[in-house]
Amino acid sequence: MPRTLRSVLSRLPQILLIAGALGLMFRTERFFTPGTLTSILTQASIVGVLAIGQAFVLIGGGFDLSQGAMLALVAATVGHLSQAGWPPLVCVAAALVVGLGLGAINGFFVSVVRTNPFVTTLSTLLIFRGAAFIALGGRPIANIRVFQAVDSGFQFGATFIPYRGLIFLAVTLAAWVVLRRSIFGQYVYALGGNAEAARLAGVRTVRLRTWTFAISGLATGLATILFLSWLRVSKPDTGTGYELDSIAACVVGGVSLQGGRGSILGAAAGCLLLQALRTQITMSGFPEEYRTFVTGLVILTFAAADALARRNERS
User: Fold this and answer.
1) Burial of 251 (0-12, 13-18, 19+ CB in 10 A)
2) CB contact at 8 A, 254 and 261
3) Is residue 14 part of a domain?
4) Residue 237's domain is classified under what CATH number?
5) 234 three-state secondary structure
6) What is the value of pTM for the model shown?
7) Is 10 part of any domain?
8) Per-residue pLDDT tens over the stretch 251-267
């Protein structure tokens, strides 16, 4: 089979998903309005930031299932600081530092102890979720207003531009520069492509893999800020399922679950596409459960397509 045809076939799920999403979108006249599009950008911002952190881990050959539980624990920490009267800047710093530290814990076990990334982050998912329950005593902390300024925006003509959406775009651009235009980014791709070859070439693979997980934690800390600016409440079950949404966004955007492939822009685009599809599902009157069904179907389909593409390249 010609290489070009194999390349097209390997991208067939993305093509079909985009075509199906566009078909649904054009059925609704209200979809392509400035208000709807900015709403999609805003709603995608939290999972979008998580997907950017997830992309670093996946491209580096890892896997992070703990993002949603990590978000809950960071939110619980910020909730207590807010109740104690700490200023917003301290709460911002705490969210980022705690997220970075929790991500580094994942990285330590995967890189230094050499436990399997799936098992490690599944375990820390349970640990972080349990810690959030303990920290909150099983009760929510409401009226967290330290980040309320982030949930505002400005008027551009007849369209309201939210800060949350702009932060998502700014983080996407910064992460793209780091991954595509820096030595660090080149090393991450080398790590995911062939970790042993990267080590023999002089790359400090243990430190590098730890940093990819730490970046995922840092992104989770930022996503927590966006989340609390929106809902202003910390609950033990906060962020449930967000890790699957971030993985789905990465996979739809062309990030390989086997490492060494993908881009930040693809992960961000995948998140926006999935959010647009979910918005269309809601606008079409389908039940909320369809969104969960679509997410699971997308992950399975694209993971299978990626595995088939890799097998075709080796043959």
Assistant:
1) buried
2) yes
3) no
4) 1.10.3470
5) strand
6) 0.90
7) no
8) 888 898 888 889 999 99
